[in-house]
Design brief:
The longest helix is centred in the first third of the chain and has 98 residues, at about 30-130. The termini are far apart. A hairpin with a 3-residue loop joins β6 and β7 (about 250-260). This protein is of the alpha+beta class. Residues about 1-30 and about 125-140 have low confidence and may be disordered. The protein has a single domain (about 140-610), classed as Beta Barrel (Porin), CATH 2.40.160. A 16-stranded antiparallel barrel has the order 2-4-5-6-7-8-9-13-14-17-18-21-22-25-26-27. A two-stranded antiparallel sheet has the order 11-12. The chain has helices at about 5-20, 30-130; strands at about 140-145, 145-160, 190-195, 200-205, 210-220, 235-250, 250-260, 300-310, 315-320, 335, 340, 350-355, 360-365, 375-385, 400, 405, 415-430, 435-445, 460, 470, 470-485, 485-500, 500-505, 510-515, 550-565, 570-585, 595-610. Helices cover about 20% and strands about 40% of the residues.
């Protein structure tokens, strides 16, 4: 309560006292009324005191808040002053760092120049010395007159164990699988061999708008007249590939020499294979040098023109060496296909060579749209033989020819006859799981195409009159592979089929051709003792034609790489294959089938060291 209020209260109180003492009251007020007023006055005074205390507390709070704000302002001013000092220091430091960066750039430029000079020096040293530090080792190449010569290849230590003897090394002659009665069917065989070892050399050079290259490879899977396994195993070098190629910048390529036939499936585009890490043909990964039944391939002379349309499509046309393989029965001497190799010449004197009127013509289109690789291809081949109408005798002295009796067989009326064959094929290959898994399918079929299959079935038979009778054939292969950093797994399933081509010869009264149901298979289950006492001449089965209808093979295997780096590659592999050979039904013997079959279980192993 302020001083004015206090004085007013005292004055009122004094006035009341004076009035009471000076003038007697006419009537006396109740005491309770005065007490109530006093209490009200006290309550008013208490309320004013409480309001005053609240105002003083609020003022104190405002003073405290003002004090805190003053402190914050002082701290902010101090921080601003410190930040300004730091900014000045940072600006000075940035200026120093900028100068250091300028100096560092100059040092880097000098270092780059030094590295370039050092590289040039090392390259010169590589040309002049053979002792190069292991940090700079690369696959061995020779630079000569603007071309790069790169030797490569591998050395192989391999073996094969077959449940039935075939007299074969690491290459399996699938169409020679023996019938149940053959003595070879009771003998297993084991061959250890290094003959698949392969020396290769690749040569490449570059002109302004064309890349020139050549490749030569060979192995030792051939034999001379004195080759044997008795002591020195002196086998001969065999040509595998020898070609040259010009690859132009506009996508055109010309290739000539001996290479994988254009019918062989590729992994991407249409390009040759050189075994230097640029293998492009999709050969099965088998140890068996004949790969797998159902695989279509050849290595032969050819010239090829290819056009690449970027990386998505390619087309090619090839002219390749022609040849014919023959299986026929009961024919007379009224036809001629060719002859054996000329003695003392380049051809094998114990091999046969058909007289070919034209090369085999092959066209292929390949597509790589981004997922998978796809191919379609076609083959056209032509066969010719010389026919002798008077070459087949009806009796010992005469034959009927042209309506006249002519003494003995002769060449009267001989003429040439040709027949066109060929086939069509498709390939598809896909990769999954970041290229770890590969799945592929292959199919090829036509007339006169048997020699292009791994099983080596025949192209043709002969009609009774001596004209050509082409055998219809089909080849198919399925592929499933898994590729890891060190381990590769593979599996293949393939089949090859040869159709019946039969005829009846009225002069001899016999059925001729291939796969006739009238051919005898009565002796296919009966073993005969050797006819010659040499120990190496099994007797052929009697009355056992057994023409192949279908050959099937299933294969599984793996390759494991112990080392793969700048010093080459060392790997081990194992392969297991099961092969069956089913024949056309012929005349059956008592208690036997008219369609005998042969089979073989084969295990292969291989240690290989690849040159870097």
């Amino acid at each position: 309560m302020n001083s004015a209020g206090k004085w007013c209260a005292i004055l009122l109180l004094a006035t009341s006292v004076v009035a009471q003492t000076s003038t007697p009251p006419k009537t006396r007020k109740p005491a309770t009324s005065t007490a109530a007023e006093v209490r009200a006055l006290k309550d008013a005074i208490a309320a004013q005191q409480a309001a005053l205390a609240a105002q003083q507390q609020e003022i104190q709070q405002l003073r405290d808040e003002l004090h805190h704000k003053d402190q914050a302002v002082n701290q902010a001013q101090a921080a601003a002053s410190d930040a300004a000092s730091r900014a000045d220091a940072a600006q000075a430091q940035a200026s120093q760092q900028q100068q250091a960066v300028i100096g560092l750039k100059a040092d880097v430029s000098d270092l780059r120049t030094n590295i370039l000079n050092t590289t040039v020096t090392l390259q010169e040293m590589q040309k002049d010395t053979k002792n190069v530090s292991s940090e700079w080792e690369t696959p061995l190449s020779i630079h000569l007159k603007g071309v790069t010569i790169t030797p490569a290849g591998f050395a192989a230590a391999e073996f094969v164990r077959r449940s039935r003897e075939l007299g074969a090394d690491i290459i399996t002659p699938f169409n020679n699988l023996t019938m149940p009665g053959a003595p070879q069917s009771s003998l297993p065989e084991f061959f250890g061999t290094a003959r698949q070892s392969r020396p290769t050399v690749f040569v490449g050079g570059r002109l302004k708008n064309v890349e020139l290259s050549s490749y030569v490879s060979g192995d030792f899977l051939s034999s001379g007249t004195t080759s044997n396994n008795n002591q020195t195993n002196s086998y001969t070098l065999r040509l595998r590939q020898a070609w040259g190629q010009a690859k132009f910048n506009n996508g055109w390529k010309f290739l000539g020499g001996q290479e994988w036939s254009l019918v062989t499936e590729m992994k991407a585009g249409i390009a040759p294979s050189d075994d230097l890490g640029r293998v492009n043909d999709a050969r099965p990964s088998t140890i068996d040098g004949q790969y797998n039944v159902g695989f279509t391939f050849a290595r032969q002379y050819g010239i090829r023109l290819t056009k690449d349309f970027g990386t998505k499509a390619s087309v090619a046309f090839a002219m390749e060496n022609a040849q014919g393989t023959l299986t026929t029965h009961n024919n007379g001497d009224n036809f001629l296909l060719g002859e054996a190799g000329a003695t003392n010449e380049a051809n094998a004197f114990n091999g046969t060579y058909t007289a070919n009127p034209a090369p085999d013509l092959i066209v292929k289109a390949a597509f790589d749209p981004g997922f998978g690789h796809y191919e379609i291809f076609g083959l056209a081949d032509r066969f010719t033989d010389r026919i002798y109408p008077c070459g087949e005798v009806a009796s010992a002295t005469t034959s009927l020819c042209g309506g006249s009796t002519v003494p003995g067989p002769n060449a009267l009326g001989a003429y040439n006859a040709s027949k066109e064959g060929g086939g069509f094929g498709v390939n598809a290959r896909w990769t999954f799981d970041d290229k770890h898994v590969v799945f592929g399918i292959h199919g090829f079929g036509g007339n006169g195409v048997g020699r292009y299959g791994a099983a080596g079935l025949s192209d043709l038979a002969i009609h009774a009159n001596g004209t050509l009778n082409l055998i219809r054939g089909y080849q198919g292969l399925g592929t499933l592979e898994w590729h890891g950093k060190k381990l590769d797994l593979y599996s293949y399933a393939g089949a090859e089929y040869a159709g019946r081509t039969t005829d009846f010869d009225p002069i001899s009264g016999k059925y001729v051709g291939y796969g006739s149901p009238f051919f005898k298979n009565t002796g296919c289950y009966t073993e005969l003792p050797p006819a010659v006492a040499t120990g190496f001449t099994p007797t052929a089965l009697s009355n056992c034609t057994a023409d192949t209808r279908v050959i099937m093979e299933g294969t599984i295997g793996f390759w494991y790489r112990f080392y793969n780096g700048p010093k080459g590659r060392f790997q081990y592999g194992t392969q297991y294959s099961y092969v069956t050979r089913e024949t056309w039904v012929g005349v059956a013997g008592p208690g036997t089938s008219g369609s005998p079959s042969g089979l073989d279980n084969m295990v292969f192993t291989s240690f290989r060291y690849y040159l870097p």
